[in-house]
Each structure stands twice: as structure tokens, then as C-alpha cells.
Amino acid sequence: MLVLGAPLDPADHHQAAAQQALEGFTRSLGKEIGRGRTVNLVRLTDASAAESTLRFLLSPKSAYVSGQVIEVGTPQEPEGAPDGDRPLTGRTALVTGAARGIGEAVAETLARDGARVVVLDVPGAEQDARRVADRLGGTALLLDITAADAGARIAEALPDGLDLLVHNAGITRDRRLVNMPAERWIPVLEVNLASVLRTTDALLKAGALRRGGRIVATASIAGLAGNAGQTNYGASKAGIVGLVRSLAPRALAEHGVTVNAVAPGFIETRMTAAVPLFIREAGRRMNSLAQGGLPVDVAETIAWLAHPGSGAVNGQVVRVCGQSLLGA
Ligand SMILES: NC(=O)c1ccc[n+]([C@@H]2O[C@H](COP(=O)([O-])OP(=O)(O)OC[C@H]3O[C@@H](n4cnc5c(N)ncnc54)[C@H](O)[C@@H]3O)[C@@H](O)[C@H]2O)c1
């Protein structure tokens, strides 16, 4: 189900109250409706810019997206008419951490939509990265994203530039803060946040992202709601949200590139398979859909943000969590 609203008007508290009420209505209905159904709210500025968003939210591609509030603004660039089945034809996508898990599904989905994909992963994951790249007719780029020169090496590997940059690589090193040594804190902040800041800055500065491009970073509901044992991970993923909100308007104005984040909830991957059984079962069930999500659910959300018609979606953090009971 879809609820349509408008952005809150700071100069009109009656309008703002009514529009905010729609948010409470949507989130409450999401928790009532059950049976695998979803409810989302779209705040529209310009209805002509909303087609890709409405199509996504009304299709099974958004099966694990519920209770979300998504703002669709005004597109900056006139949108061409993309190929219906392969809307990303002619575009180059770089996905970090794409040798397995969510990243692999993202690469596969963007390739399905016509993009040429570059599968970036650590040298230790060479076999898997090459397997994914070969299967999708793309190329593998073996690189630790925390390397100081990672941005320069990406730009060098893609001399014609790129259109879609998906920051997906991420790690966990869980421990309660009282027992958290620097060896568990630093790598999580480095992989999940500092490298995203460094490579984004380097690629934007080098002009490597073409106009009409997209940056999508991977946050987590742990960064929005907090999670015991994950102060390092929660901090890194909350940092992604700050990056997106601050950079999005400037990147669009200066480079014609949108910047958004997805915040997955419990997604069935090797990362969540390593969680102890009791916590894993709770994580799987504690959402309005009472089940875990699949990597493809995150991948389809990224494919919607990458779509040429989604240029009016900017600075958004979209949870892919089945409306997890953790956080809003
Ligand atoms: N699985 C979930 O439930 C879940 C929930 C919320 C957020 N996320 C986020 O989604 C993203 C993908 O998660 P996943 O479950 O697929 O994880 P995963 O562990 O299955 O895969 C992560 C990939 O990133 C790669 N990687 C790690 N460090 C790297 C580095 N320094 N340079 C390049 N590549 C590196 C790994 O080799 C691996 O291929 C992560 O950012 C994660 O934090 C996952």
C-alpha cells in the first residue's frame, strides 16, 4: 500500500501537523496490516518525477521495504526515456564488497538492468570476485578499499569514469564497549566509514562520476536504532547517514550526482549466519513481516535508486528491514 503526501512546510504548522500525521499513520498501519503486505509514505514535490519510485514501491521488488517515508524532490537534470527492461544500459557500476552476499546480489541486479559492473573486493576474495564478474560479463577489481590510494586506483581502472558507485563493503567486530580493544574498533570504522568518505571525495574531486550518476552507501538499522555489542558498527553506519544527508544537496548541485543510503535490517548472508542462534532468530522475526530479508531485497532497492528516473530521490536513507521493531 502506498500513502501519498507532501513535504512539511516550515512556514505552516497546520500543514506540517497533517503531513507528519501521515507518517504516524503509515508506520502504525504497517504494523497492523500483516500477511506480507507493506505500507510506505511518499512525500511528493513534483509528481512527474515520481514514476520510478511509485513503480518500485508498488512492485514485489520492494517486498522487504515497509514503514518508510521517502521524499521525491524535483529532478535537476531532464530525464531521458530509459530502456524499459534494461534502464542502466550504457552505465558503469562499481560495487564494493561484491564477491558475495549483498554486494554480489547488487552487482547481479545492476547487470540485469543493463549496467557494466565492476566487482571490487579484497585480494583474498579473488576467486569469488572473478566468478561473480565472469558470470555477469563484468570485471573484477581486487583492492582493499581501506588503502589510502583506493580512490585513485578506482579512477585509474575506469579511465572513462563511472555512473554508479555502490559502497557496500562492510565488516563487523562485535564486542561490548567495555571489552572493545582498538583492534576491533579501528577496522570497522576504517572499512565501513573512513574508506567511504575517502573514496567518495577522491572520485568526486577527480570528476570520475559522470553527471546523472548515483552514489549509494550501505548503512544499517544498527546505525539508526543502536545495537548492544555494536558501538563500533553502529557509529560507522550512523556516520554513513550523516555523510549522505550533508553531501547529497552539494553533490547534486555541483556534480549532478545523487547520494542516498540503504539501511538493511536482518538480511540472510554469511554476516548474519555468524550471529549466535538465539539473537539470529530474534533478529529474523522482530519486524512487521516476521521474517528475514534476502540480499536481492537490498539489491532491488539500490537498483531503484540507480534508475535514470530516480534523479529526484536525493539524501534519503531507506531502510530495507521489513519495518524492524528496532528504531523508528
Ligand atoms: N547482512 C545483514 O543483515 C546486513 C544488515 C545491515 C547492513 N549490512 C551491510 O551490508 C553490507 C554487505 O553485508 P553482507 O552481509 O553482504 O556482508 P558479507 O560479509 O557477506 O560481505 C561483505 C563483502 O565485503 C568485502 N570486504 C570487506 N572488507 C573489505 C575491504 N576492506 N575492501 C573491499 N572489500 C571488503 C568482503 O570480502 C565481502 O565480500 C555491509 O556494509 C554490511 O554492514 C548487512
From TrEMBL:
Top EC category: oxidoreductase
Assigned protein family: Belongs to the short-chain dehydrogenases/reductases (SDR) family.
Organism: Streptomyces violarus
Transmembrane spans: none
Domain Ketoreductase: start-end pairs: 91-265
Lineage per the UniProt record: Bacteria, Bacillati, Actinomycetota, Actinomycetes, Kitasatosporales
Keyword Nucleotide-binding assigned: no
The protein, known as: 3-oxoacyl-[acyl-carrier protein] reductase
Domain of life: Bacteria
Gene Ontology MF: a single term: 3-oxoacyl-[acyl-carrier-protein] reductase (NADPH) activity
InterPro entries, A to Z: KR_dom, NAD(P)-bd_dom_sf, Sc_DH/Rdtase_CS, SDR_fam
EC id: 1.1.1.100
SUPFAM superfamilies, per the entry: NAD(P)-binding Rossmann-fold domains (SSF51735)
The UniProt record lists the keyword Oxidoreductase: yes
Record key words, sorted: Oxidoreductase
Cited Pfam families: adh_short_C2 (PF13561)
